[in-house]
Amino acid sequence: MFATILIANRGEIACRVIDTCRRLGVRTVAVHSDVDRGARHVAMADEAVSLGGAAPADSYLRGDAIIEAARATGAEAIHPGYGFLSENPAFVEAVEAAGLVFIGPSASAIRAMGLKDAAKDLMEKAGVPVVPGYRGENQDPAHLARQAGDIGYPVLIKAVAGGGGKGMRRVEAPDAFADALEAAKSEAAKAFGNDHVLIEKWIASPRHIEVQVFGDGTRALHLFERDCSLQRRHQKVIEEAPAPGMTPEMRAAMGDAAVRAAEAIGYSGAGTVEFIVDGSDGLRPDGFWFMEMNTRLQVEHPVTEAITGVDLVEWQLRVASGEPLPAAQEDLTIEGHAFEARLYAEDAENGFLPQTGRLTHLRFPPGVRAETGVRAGDTISPWYDPMIAKVVVHGPTRATALLSLERALARTRVAGTVTNLAFLRRLARHEGFRAGDVDTGLIDRDIAALSARPEPSSQVRALAALAALGLDRPQWQEGAHLWTPLAWTARLVSRGDEMTARVEARGGGSCRVTLEDAAHDVTRDGGWRIDGAPVAAEVAHGPGVVHVFDDDAHSFDVPDPLAVDAAGGAASGLVEAPMPGLVKAVFVKTGATVAQGDRLALLEAMKMEHVLTAPRDGTVAEVLATAGTQVEAGAPLIRMEEE
To answer: How far apart are the C-alpha atoms of 393 and 408, rounded to whole Å?
Structure first.
């Protein structure tokens, strides 16, 4: 076993690796960017080395600096986590050339699976089922259109170097093919520097089921499957293991195919073989096809660990240090069921835009495996993926595990930024999901209902009013007037709407809160009682804001009556940055005539690009930002002339 390893990553995966290293007595070295100097993974590690600027290109993607840090700190090996350099074969070769061990597969294995078309050719030769399609070199649009017609519509256009849904388009009919192809190629070129695409048959009721594999460079085994069908824009949201509806025959067939895939490339370490599955008529051994292989540890690996009792990071360290595979296939069994929900700083109601902010509150319920790289007081940065945590639960059956997930999400307390917590809770209660009737289109079919932000009840607003006045302490600030009880007026703002509440102290720890649409008697006596009934709610404070947690999190701004409203004179044609980010491009100049929906600027934030468009027809009065500028949320970028 290694004495010291360096973790070439950040956030929750770096913390996850450190947890296992601590248990094994392995010393850890963290690396960090300038903005991550005080991050949780840095605090947890035995030693930390700065890599430089905030942007990944200036820090976590600097392979030479990472290798130098490993050598300077006496690390014998580098664990890449996932993302950043984890699937970069040139980095693997540089690590090995420096006399260090890369905790993961060989460069040749990564290259073999790096391009989707070449990987599928390889898998086909290895006897792994592959989706019917065209993976040739001829990229002429007319040729590709003919191939799509031969395959049969609907078809899927996919970037050969793609991932995360980029460079991917579903095409229903021949007349839509040309536009979809152009869009896919353009997106692929920008994202990967390679505009080549492949064409595949679209599966009618697709499920995304992947198999965890582990190899020693010669032999491989599998640790069963995970169902990752709950996706939004090809990004996984909730994963589970085992897959609902899985049969022993299907599991054996998929496991054998995944092992063949791993052994065909001499795979070493943890990897995932992803399959597209036809779920239209149940799971059948002849109804799954190879999609791609992720040559690294996956974000969703904890659900596999939960049902097998295996620590995959420990296995990675042991095999990379020269030990044999820690188990044989027949030693592995499935115990119970597990779910993982990805908690993000994103606004589900507003197109899942990434959010930033300082986490004033962050707490997870006891008994829940919460994998996180942040703490209360930390800031969600615009420079990196906005994941807050992975909430993982395990139970003896799927039904009990799903109930545990619902409870865990309801009792998770997070404030200081907008999150997708309410979206996850609705998804966990979705009838189709509860029944195990899942496919990759489930979320999109019900996106409006799932993503709507929860409305605060009158009881929640009553508690917020008390908190705004500072009356949420264990003892009311009681007093008496000559003839009448003390009374106050509370002002709150929720989503831009102002509300007022009249609060009267009644004595005995009780208040009467009168809202515009309701009135409640609220008592604080060890816990909250509203109109005599106990309520399981919590109240918390942040700078200029109060939070009320029931099953959801509700935040209310508390206006400062002395503050001047700077927004009052803002022109209606002002285009502002919806979040902190980097202005990648400005498409207009002062005096330009634009139509509603025309592109004005491109903002990059949290690894995504966001196009800002003209709110109406008109003329650009002023361009207030330039390409290459880092801006804060709400920063004015373009001003339109008044109508």
So the answer is: 8
Q: What phi and psi, each to the nearest 5 degrees, are found at residue 382?
A: -75, -5
Tell me the pLDDT tens digit for each residue of 418-464. Answer: 999 999 999 999 999 999 999 999 999 999 999 998 999 999 999 99
**Widest CA span of the chain, in angstroms?**
92
Q: How far apart are CA 417 and CA 362, in angstroms?
A: 11
Q: Which residues of 404-430 are buried (b: 16+ CB within 10 A; e: fewer)?
A: bbbbbbbbbbbbbbbbbbbbbbbbbeb
Q: Which two three-digit tokens encode residue 224?
A: 């069963």
Give pairs for 591-598: CB < 8 Å, separation 24+: 591/619, 591/620, 592/619, 592/620, 593/618, 593/619, 593/620, 594/618, 594/619, 594/620, 594/640
What's the one-letter identity of residue 537?
Answer: A
Tell me which residue has tokens 């309801």: 410
The residue assigned the tokens 């002339």 is: 641
Instruction: Tell me which DSSP letter residue 452 carries.
Output: S
Closest CA to 187 of 168, 172, 202: 168
131: phi then psi, degrees, rounded to nearest 5: -60, 135
| Cβ atoms within 10 Å of 45's Cβ, excluding its own | 24
- The whole-angstrom separation of Cα 152 and Cα 173 is 9
Q: Assess contact for 380 and 373: CB atoms under 8 A.
A: no
Q: pLDDT per residue over 142-171, tens digit each?
A: 999 999 999 989 999 999 887 667 889 999
Q: Give the active site residues.
A: 296
pTM of the complete model beyond 0.85: no
